[in-house]
Write a structure and sequence with these properties.
mainly alpha, 146 residues, 6 helices
Length: 146
Amino acid sequence: MTVRGQLIRFALVGVVNTGSYYACYLVLLTWLPYVAAHVVAFVLSMIGSFFLNSHFTYRTRPTWRKFLLFPLTNAANFTITTCGVYLLVDVLHLGRTYAPLIAAAAAIPITFVVSRTIMLRPEPAAYTEPSPAPAPVPSRAARIDK
């Protein structure tokens, strides 16, 4: 699969992820305070995003290592969008209503690179005990003496 195809699939997963987050948030809001609903919905949607990106975007086997590294994609996204919103609103004086959408769109390529690096990185080789050293071969002289 081409990088362009992966990027398109990544964006589609992002749309699904946003929708699943929001749906979970609204459902959980009926039982939980809004901050708790946000956190639980965020975690659930991130887990779903990991598996969708693993299977649909990159077609790779999910592993615990990748799963534990995957939140770095969200950290990258958060950092880029937060800096982007600040830059757009306070420096470039764009409207605060649309600035998050522009910043989020700008974050997609960088978040994609971080995600791709995590998901397609080869797994480290499993550690195996070194095999014992082979028994020394007797010298020719020692074999002749016998």
